[in-house]
Amino acid sequence: MIPLTINGRKVDGETGETILDVARRHGIHIPALCAEERLAPYDSCGVCTVEVEGRGVVKACSTPIEEEMVVETHSPEAVEVRKAALELLLSNHWGDCVAPCKSACPAKTDCQAYVSLTANGRFLDGLKILYENLPLPASFGRVCPAPCEDACRREIAEEPVQIRHMKRFLADHGFDYVPPTGEPTGRHVAIVGGGPAGLSAAYFLRREGHDVTVYDAMPKMGGMLRYGIPEYRLPQTVIDRELDVLRRMGITFRPSVRIGEDVRCADLVSDHDAVFLGLGAWGTRGVGLPGEDHAAVMQGADFLRRVNEGERPSLPDRIVIIGGGNTAMDAARCARRLGAEVTVAYRRTFEQMPALEHEVREAEDEGVVFRYLTQPIEFLIEDDVLAGIRCVEMELGEPDDSGRRRPVPVDGSEFVLEARAAILAVGQVIETSCLDGEEIERARNGAIVVDDTTGRTSNPKVFAGGDVVTGPSIAVEAIGAGHRAADAIDRFLRGEPVPPASVYTHVKQGVTREDIGNPATSPRIRTTPRPVEERVSDFAEYEAGLTDDEAVAAAQRCLECGCMAFNDCALRDYATEVEAVQETYEGDLPRKLRDERHPFIVRKVGKCISCGRCLRVCEDVCGIGAIDFAGRGIDTEVQAPFNRAWQDSDCVSCGACVDVCPTGALYDRTVLEKQVPLELKRTTTTCVLCGLGCEIDILTLDGAYMRTVPSDGRSVLCARGRYGWHTLGDDARITTPMIRSGSALREASWSEALGEAAKRLTAAKGSVAAFGTGMLSCEEGWLVARIADGLGAGAPMFDINASRPQIEIADEQILSLGDLVQADLIVVVGGRGTYEKVTLDVLLREQIARGARVVGYGASVPGAANEFDLDELDGLLTELDRGESLFGDEATAAKTPVFLFEESAVPRHALEEITAFLQTHPMWRLVVVPATANAIGLRRLGFSEQLRTDAKAWLTVGSDPVAMVGGRQHLLDVDTLVAISPVRTATTDRADVVFPMRLPYEARGHILGARGPRTLVSALDGPLTMETWEVLLRLAGELELGAMPWQFEALTAAARCDEFHGQGGLTAAGATPASVAELIERNLVASGI
Amino acid sequence: MSGVREVRVGLATCGIAAGAQRVAARLHKDLDSGRIDVPIKRVGCVGMCYNEPLVDVVDESGTLTTYGHVTEADVERIVAEHVLGGSIVEELRIEPDAFFANQVRIVLENCGVIDPESLDEYRAHDGYAALKTVLEEMTPDEVVEVVKASGLRGRGGAGFPTGLKWSFAAREDASDKYVICNADEGDPGAFMDRSVLEGDPHRIIEGMAIAAYAIGAAHGYVYVRAEYPLAIRRLEKALDDARAAHLLGENILGTPFTFDMRIKAGAGAFVCGEETALIASIEGRRGMPRKRPPYPASSGLWGKPTNINNVETLANVPWILRNGADAFAAYGTETSKGTKVFALAGKIKQSGLIEIPMGMPIRQIVFDIGGGIQDDRPLKAVQTGGPSGGCIPASLADTPVDYEALKATGAIVGSGGMIVLDDSTCMVEMARYFLDFTQKESCGKCTFCRVGTKRMLETLERICAGEGRAEDLDKLVELCQKVKQYSLCGLGQTAPNPVLTTIEHFRDEYEAHIVDRACPAKACKALIRFHIDPDTCKNCGLCARGCPVEAIRAVDEGYHVIDQEACVQCGRCEQVCPFDAVEIRTGKVEV
After folding, report:
1. How remote is the C-alpha of A668 from its chain's centroid?
2. ipTM (interface pTM)
């Protein structure tokens, strides 16, 4: 024990440990990028700097501890060096933590996610993601000015992705989706203002489980969305539909309640736990010109409100709109729809006009005339009628404060613009006189003063956001403000501290067309507005949304900018921690494109920080060494030899490199065609694809498979376990029962199919053969065995091809995989496939590192002391018999020698030789990796490898005996074939009755594997509601086989196999089949069944 | 014949590059034809690279006459007049006295004197005598003690006491140990190690065998750059000859001592000069350093105790064992004993390979041995230690060459590069040059070296391009200090030295670049303009004809002018102008 002090805490370390080892063991946080617990200290990233008293700043990963050392992990000096190292790394990092579209969205909607999900055809998932940050997707899908599209990288190549349209598409798709609400909190929040800000705050508070009431002065909710935007852009029915969703979430609406008149703010404050003010900016302002008070001179906002309320005022034939913003466009186009000749007078030029370009173009199309550089100076009233507008021509002078060139009058250019009515669309102002007398601080212009990040006002219970704080702005800003305030209110109501620090976000700077890979030209999908003549005659929506195919095609244009490691990046976490910035050491950037040559692993080379963890884990842990650094200096890069695709090296696609990558430089492809950075659900279960039974996490999106990773993040999976599900499409899935009708199968009801199966099997009673796949759980296996027994079928059979000979070996001589740590000599017999062997190799390398000697016979193990051909095994056994060995004294000197092989990889003759040898050499032990995940459990349930050849009827559960017997046609001469199967197989094609079955990761249960009892957890929803054990139970019921446990809980509690743990009998081949069946029955009896 | 004993031709790489092969061929033709009958001996580099090709004629009396810049035509005269005629060809003769007068030859004692491919010659010059004494009369501990007492320090650059280093490996108890000779000479412009390997290869074998005996090793490696094919060839021949003579292999010289060695040709990565990277490279891995400890002395090649010495260090060993520790320690200063070989280069009249006793002031090297600055321009600074070293300004020219004294100036002795700079050298550009080298040679492992040196380089590039920013200098110094302190190995730790020393001693030059947009040395193209003085111009038009971009034209007033927009600052006009009318201006254009 070496005592030392870290951050004032006395801790003990062992000889040989580094500061980082000890700190991590004691849960003391030291950032480190290149250090990984399985790998030797590498000492390269410079991030793990700590200060040691008397020695200054050192690297924790490579500094051995010393007696009475005093370490400070976050001293100013240590943090300064750490920050410098991180900022150097950031200066050479080419990537976006989040996609620019998402960064640009004031509401922080995850644009890339819903666009990509749309591209993958996962529309409902897209809508759900959209709803995470946007309560009114259909409305914003129509009217949002889409700052996201301005930021879209696709614009560098041609035009941005149609992100706004994507919202409309998803929201209009017809899903009956109501976002979930949290557990009720019993807190009640009043929202004043039913516009975007208020509805946003209401929505996000409701999602957290708070009660929310929204008050609005107008007769209907929606605020400016309803009263400020014309119907042809945003139909009232769309707003109504969206409000209905909010109402179904439980939000209460109280329209026609005017604050200051019908209710005082102070009363709301005292009656509620918090209040949010989203009053908007409904005040109007004049331009101070003679004649503007005349009735023929209208305010744009008033005009639009009247039209939106359903009024269809009759307008004089000539109208002039004064202004150049979106309100001006809306007013102009409404006036056109009311039959007027419309001129827009704007004092600057087209280029400076704040209105969206497409709005201007559409207005032009609809016949609106634009007069630029035109400034009204007087409304000419003659006989109480507007006779015209005196204007002056302008020219552009020096830039003003806004950076735009200031228009100045041209001397002597006055003229009269013909007009019978005018609409002033020069902007709205904040109007908060309703708050007079309330204790809420306001600025001189009436704006409510709030804290920027929380929206909190001078009254701690009152929050505000939207136009009433910022002045008139785009609606999506108000959504963001409402969301931020809702978060703050939620924390306030829960008594939690104020907001977390901002998260570091890296941004690609100066992106060029080359940097986005010179994408093939793919223009936007043109949406077709209704014909001009038609649309100027009514207020119906002027343009249709995207069709499914169009939406997918439009979404396919997404360049996938956001980082897949957005929530799992140590570089980002540490940068956040020390408040690092990417600009400190600016310089050339590694503008590398994605390397997508590998079928499963994507490399973002520009994000690599050269920590070398990937290549070291490949070499040191996996023993493969497929990749290494190439190049020198700043151009150093991880590559396979000669920069070939990684899979063209010694790579076995185990993905260990991906797991250790501390940034987003390496990531797994998911099953989706277009990759999406998403928070995925993790479900821990057991891999059933081979007998090793590795613990895995299945990552899912809404119950659908996305990818697989090792549960502990450090175990090494094989390509099959990790990426094999890529190939498992659901094209061939069986989803309903089927009955043979002539040469074909027809769909049938459950009861019909069960009746037919029972009838046929009962008829063949006594000459039935039952088959089960080796992946069946103990629960399923027990039920199969019960059914087989009831049908007089004898022991059920595995579907493994080569039947295993009986191994007559004493139980004491058989060890489980976990017992390998006891061995000092391991003779591995028989190889595995290139891609599968890595998992066992890693296990063996751990034994080598521990000091065990590994020798391969027909097996290649990286790091093995010796390797021989399989046919030399005979010689070894003979020599061992004589007390000598082919590979020296170690073999004969070994105290705990074992043979290790895999059932499916060892030839029969070798097995027989070893069996014979073991019988005369009791010191030697055997470790067998079973051929399938639950071979041990199923054997203990009585499953056998012996093929019954005299059956007249077959019952198959997940297995495919027709494929198995292959050419032995005579075996197929059965009268009845009942198949339970997840997919179509040779067996189901010949079956008389077929039942659907869940795939392993859709099923629940327990197995008894090479590593002991393991649990199978249903990770995927799959297409079936009925579980396999239920199918078997119903069949057993139909066969009238007696009492059965009808609850899964009872069955599974009985089948957990815990009693087998640690008995040393977890073998492929116990001489005494200590029966799992007996255990299950005993437990079932004990539980009263 | 008229009393000529032998004729020597310098056939090291430097001589060959200057055309010595043709000179040698011409002499051999005379020999083959029977015209002459004296031995013609190829020898290594004698050091006077500025005079190559060199031919020495040794008379029977042992008097040596050196001819320099010898052409084939000169050979005819030397043969006719001196070899056959017995009279020295005075016009071709060079007087090397001043060059050699202040030198002490220990490491280079045989270079340029013996035929490197002849074991007999080496033995005739006391070769392997030290090994014989060591094996027959001394214990390993006694050998270590002698080397310790000599005060020899590692000549690879770090200057660690060699005897002490040996003692570390010697006290390790292991079945296998290794000695490695580091011949991965990587500094630009340095060729000390190459010259020794080419000129006296047996010396290295002998030095390694003695080191192996001292630490108890039976295996050795010479890690030599693949870019040194001649050195490798000569070393290979020397190894074969030594094995044949039982100087390598089992029971060397009839003693129980067994030792053999092999050559590992490195692929020319600068960082492989670093001990742990060199070991990784021999082991077949990418040449990347690792953290020390553990030091190679306890865990080196294949995890075994390993002693690594540089070529020059090992070349000193036989001499020390032959002449005694005291004789060696008699040269040098209190802390730096013996001699040091330098590759003297730059703006010096007599460039070449020199060996000086430690402690000689820089001024004496430059002016007495090197003959002063070319064109008698002023000395500005001396750069030592290559890319890892620093600049010593002329004001500190009296600094003695000694590990501690040089370090005090911010420079280092290094492996032996010494570049003399005059006032036409831009110190910013020079720092940029060296940093460009180290950045490209960084192994890329640690953040501070891989990214830090790149960011430093970019700052220097910006300054040289006239785009320096006011805050650049302070930020640069700060980053340099971090890179120096926190890089993993010597490459990164020393890479900032050229930058830091030039900023320390020539800060005004940096500021001129940044603030005035001026390059005082008139070397940075982005900051200079060529200008034709109307009064001096004689309108001859040579400059306009020479201009590759046609930026010069005559004007009606009767002189030539340069179109600054078109000019690419190639400097041709200045070179060709016979009237010195072209001047270089720098700094902001006066309005």
Report:
1. 12
2. 0.91
